[in-house]
Specification:
Layout: H1 2-24, E1 35-45, E2 49-56, E3 59-66, E4 75-79, E5 82-89, E6 94-101, E7 105-106, H2 144-149, H3 151-154, E8 158-172, E9 175-181, E10 192-196, E11 205-219, E12 222-233
Parallel strand pairs: 3-6, 10-12
Antiparallel strand pairs: 1-2, 1-4, 2-3, 4-7, 5-6, 8-9, 8-11, 9-10, 11-12
């Protein structure tokens, strides 16, 4: 009888301990639709971007995000906004068979965590602040204020624009990204983004010829109300 009581008491204690353990277990993580959870295996840094090799349950992928400090072994949560195939990074002298550009990446689930990403938002990459400059347009050129105020009239047209380089990001999505200002402004628009294969330097005063495109969304947070594409230095 004593043996039976001992066994029953022991089973009761085990059951109570098991219930207590279940109470203290963390609730399972809930990921948002399209959200990924992976472990960083390799980190490559360039002037503007951080490249990450990640492992998601045995599936290896490469990510590119705005430059930030991340270490191997870190668990990250992200959404893959835009996949590029055969993407060449000239800074790394390397071509990736497949790489995902990521606008939101965090060390916590995205629906509750703070983004680790710096320098861009999910809607618009940051532009440089308005500079105290004055750049005269060439003959036939269009100022940024005039372009902004009459954007519908210029949509799809090839124009000349002269300005000072206030931001330059090379070799992203197989093109260079140039931000110029000329000292004019319309409704808060004082900066024009230009995509080109030509190379410039910060502070250069440059003249570009290119096509005006409105409401362009490249994905990965690269969304523009107005942009000049396929531009070339004049």
């Amino acid at each position: 009888m004593r043996t039976i009581l001992y066994i029953l008491s022991l089973l009761l204690l085990i059951n109570l301990a098991s219930c207590q353990e279940n109470k203290t277990q963390k609730a399972p993580e809930t990921l948002a639709k399209g959200e990924h959870k992976a472990v960083v295996e390799e980190v490559l840094q360039t002037n503007s971007y951080t490249y990450l090799k990640v492992d998601e349950n045995g599936k290896i992928s490469w990510l590119a995000t705005v430059k930030q400090e991340l270490n191997t072994g870190t668990t990250v949560f992200y959404k893959a906004d835009l996949e590029m195939n055969n993407f060449e990074s000239k800074e790394l002298n390397r071509t990736f068979d497949s790489i995902f550009f990521v606008s939101s990446i965090s060390d916590k689930p995205l629906q509750s965590g703070m983004s680790l990403m710096k320098g861009a938002s999910a809607e618009h990459p940051k532009t440089a602040p308005a500079a105290d400059i004055s750049v005269e347009q060439p003959q036939g050129g269009v100022s940024i204020s005039k372009l902004s105020a009459n954007r519908a009239a210029y949509e799809g047209k090839t124009i000349l624009v002269r300005g000072q380089v206030t931001k330059y990001n090379p070799s992203i999505m197989n093109r260079n990204w140039v931000h110029v200002q000329d000292g004019t402004e319309d409704g808060g628009t004082f900066d024009l983004t230009i995509t080109t294969h030509d190379v410039v330097k910060m502070g250069d005063v440059v003249t570009f010829k290119g096509k005006v495109v409105l409401n362009k969304d490249f994905g990965a947070g690269y969304k523009y109300d107005i942009i000049m594409e396929e531009a070339s230095l004049q």
